[in-house]
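Lay summary. Proteins are chains of building blocks that fold into shapes, and those shapes determine what they do. In this project we predict the shape from the chain. Here is one chain we studied, written as its sequence of building blocks.
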Amino acid sequence: MAREKRATWWKMFYHQRAAIESVSDEDAGIGLKAAFRYFDGEDVDAASLTPAAFTVFCVMRPYIDESRQDYENAVVRGKQGADTRWSKK
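And here is the predicted shape, written in a compact code that computers can read:
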């Protein structure tokens, strides 16, 4: 079975801890689960999240977007490198 080609991680930073610690464990878990759904390309309905869970999700979302973009850029650079290497005679 072929492995899906996509980003497999996103960054978390220590400065995000304060926002996550400021909400209940339940809201932190709901926000984290929403982040994983978003990372997997599923829709996340902000209206279905509590304000605290939405805050947790929003703390992670920019880094999920960044990891997706970094992966796409790496794929493009890899193809360009392969083209350069293999098109030389």
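What the prediction tells us: Residues 51-87 form the longest helix (37 residues).
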